Structure prediction request, 270 residues.
Amino acid sequence: MLKKIKDTALYITKKTGEKPFAGIILGTGLGGLVNEISIRHSLDYRDIPGFPVSTVQGHAGKLIFGSLSGKNIIAMQGRFHYYEGWSMEEVVFPVRVMKMLGIDLLILSNASGGVNPDYEVGDIMILNDHINLFPSHPLMGRNIDELGPRFPDMSIAYDRELVAKAFDIARLHNIRVQKGVYAGVSGPSFETPSEYHYLRVIGADAVGMSTVPEVIAARHMNLRCFAMSVITDLGVDKKIVKITHEEVLDVAKTIEPKMTLIIKELLEKI
Prediction:
């Protein structure tokens, strides 16, 4: 696996000559941030050795290199999900490659369902912790010592300084934001009312089908992490309605400009 990571990173370096400062993973319906990037290189996932190919609507499947807010970045326009049938090793493979390319920071976005009764559809939640409910773990198996320790600490999964700066940016622009705990589940079915209730009882504020594996892999490699969720639907008693993936995309696209603004200004302040 280590050889595969290095070979893929070497291929990308030869193609682009880039050494990015930050990696950005753009989630469901949130790929429009690339319109703000001064793009120098764009690679299709299918052309990158070892890369899976995203099969989900709303995930373009491109690796973008360029500048955003004066920082060299690499952006994943589309991610890989466990529910697509990829192994956890494959889900986090791009994060490991980005680390090998030189990133110091990983920024993630996702669409999620709110289980906190104080949340509203269209809210942005800044993650301050997560609960891993996936049936597998990205660090299972033999540890790759060159990447990180066998038992990585997860007491501060999301960088507190970045969380505080993002809140300041949101307040400055009158953007409604929440701070909360994200529960990561396998999907692909949306949750039942009882599952929503269970998630709230165990301490979650929102639930989604991504982000947690990538953050675990990133922290294993000592990368700083910052993540945001767009609350696209509610799993709250008396507010639960039938939801479709298309409706999730619609809400995410509506809120995307606000999330883009926060990410741009956050990069400026780092």
The two ends are 32 Å apart (CA to CA). The CA atoms of residues 47 and 53 lie 10 Å apart. The chain has a mean pLDDT of 92.
